Amino acid sequence: MKMRIASIVAITLLLLAVLTVYIINSKDLAQDNRVSFVLELSIYTPAGELEGYAKVFIYELRRDGETRLIEKQMAQGGVMSTTLSVEKIPCWLPQNTPPWWPEGSDPIYQTVNLRILVFGGHGTISWGLPVDPLEVEREGKLVLKLTERPYMSGEVYDEAAIMAIDDFTLEVEEISREWTPIVTYHSWDNVTAYLNVNYGTKYSEVKKERQSLEWPPGSGQWYTGDWTEAGNTVVTIEHGFDSSPTITGQKRMETLFYLTYKYERWDGRVDGHHYKIEYVYLLDTDSDPTGNDFTSGSPLSGNGVSDPWNYGHYDFIDQGVTGWKFPIYGHGGEKLRFSVSVGFSAQWPPGVSVSVTLTVWKEYQDPTPMFIKYNVGRWYPGYYFYVYDRNTGDMQLYATWATAPP
User: Fold this and answer.
1) Backbone angles phi, psi at 141, to 5 degrees
2) How far is 361 from 356, CA to CA, in rounded Å?
3) What is the 3 state secondary structure string of the chain?
4) Looking at the DSSP assignment, which residues form a beta bridge with residue 37?
5) Nearest residue to 361 (alpha-carbon basis) of 387, 389, 386
6) Dihedrals phi, psi of 308, to nearest 5 degrees
7) What distance in Å separates the CA atoms of residue 283 and residue 344, rounded to the nearest whole number?
8) What is the pLDDT along the chain (406 residues), one digit of tens a residue?
9) Full-prediction pTM beyond 0.85?
């Protein structure tokens, strides 16, 4: 059963009004609020050896377009250090700390998404790198190791050719919005469940890249490679909601956010060879999500077990409790991811519309601003209500009644 809670425009206006006390103006806070850190970048050839020389471009993927932060030559050793500066924008001001946030905890800061583009002698690599301003402020540096992919031309370019590379030119960009699966959860016998998503919740999605080469040179014929994973980007939610539609009894609820995706195609040359690089990624905007959708149905298999403590992240509560919160921490990308297909009207190769499948997951946060809330009724004496994730990284949450854990 579909339950569209509001039109995209209506929900945006409503939530803006409700959250005025907490949501801050990013532009106002960004004036003198920046964090500097050292990025230590190690670049390896496709054979696994340190690259001898490379040219590195670093961009910030801003809501209003890309901004190039660095263009730097790496002459020797395969290792480069550079100092970067990013905005440190909290999701709320200290005097407006929301009541659901643990006392004494640091506020959540908006993630800054970077793109690193490397041209080495033996290959090239593009990588999406999300930066948490609070994390890099604490650590003072960020360490990243990248392995190049071979050039489609099969060439190994000399140092002079690499250092002569100019920044590629953006020739096509397009925005698409898609309903994106976020979390699946369950109610159970004599238990009601609903979702609570607060601003500052973060979701991560794989960024994909594809390259094309004109071959033979000057022929106008293009050889296009496959889409490959190229890091990830993170969206920071501005428009949360206190309560989704409720479900009661043995039911499943699937939640979707209406999120923004971007397609880009860049054009450039390496030592006379003509290349195009395409990117598709989740774009962080200032109004995420622009809509929510909920689908209820029969429960997934895996609910109702007698030993929920053996199934990953779990917690339990006694009978007769109202408003019990189960935290959705998420994971670092290593557990369950949901898939979303994203299409664009842009065509490449000519005559073929761009379409790609990406994977999304809840970014790990502890403490977390995202919960499932339960109103727990009565069951047999000695039983407790459990929620557990079956090792999905909180992407799918299951329910049962069971005795106390051993």
Assistant:
1) -155, 165
2) 17
3) CEEECCCHHHHHHHHHHHCCCCCCCHHHHCCCCEEEEEEEEEEECCCCCECCCEEEEEEEEECCEEEEEEEEEECCCCEEEEEEEEECCECCCHHHCCCCCCCCCCCCECCEEEEEEEEECCEEEEEEEEECHHHHHHHCEEEEEEECEECCCCCCCCHHHHHCCCCCEEEEEEEEEEEEEEEEEEEECCEEEEEEECCCCEEEEEEEEEEEEECCCCCCCEEECCCEEEEEEEEECCCCECCCCCEECCEEEEEEEEEEEEEEEEEEEECCEEEEEEEEEECCCCCCCCCEEEEEECCCCCCCCCCHHHCCCEEEECCCCCCEEEECCCECCCCCCEEEEEEEEEECCCCCEEEEEEEEEEECCCCCCEEEEEEECCCCCCCEEEEECCCCCCCECEEEEECCCC
4) 84
5) 389
6) -60, -20
7) 14
8) 444 434 343 343 334 333 433 344 444 444 458 999 999 999 999 999 999 999 999 999 998 888 999 999 987 778 999 999 999 999 988 888 999 899 989 999 999 999 999 999 999 999 999 999 999 999 999 999 999 999 999 999 999 999 999 989 999 999 999 999 999 999 999 999 999 999 999 999 999 999 999 999 999 999 999 999 999 999 999 988 887 899 999 999 999 999 999 999 999 999 999 999 999 999 999 999 999 999 999 999 999 999 999 999 999 999 999 999 999 999 999 999 999 999 999 999 999 999 999 999 999 999 999 999 999 999 999 999 999 999 999 999 999 999 999 9
9) yes
Residue 279: burial class (beta carbons within 10 Å; 0-12, 13-18, 19+): buried
Q: Considering only CA atoms, which of 179, 158, 143 is closest in space to residue 257?
A: 179
Q: In one letter, which amino acid is 29?
A: L
State the Cα–Cα distance between residues 96 and 261, nearest whole angstrom: 31
Place of tokens 């622009």: 290
Could you tell me the two tokens for 151?
Answer: 């050039």
Q: At which residue do the structure tokens 């199934």 appear? A: 311
Q: Which residues pair with 107 in a beta bridge?
A: none
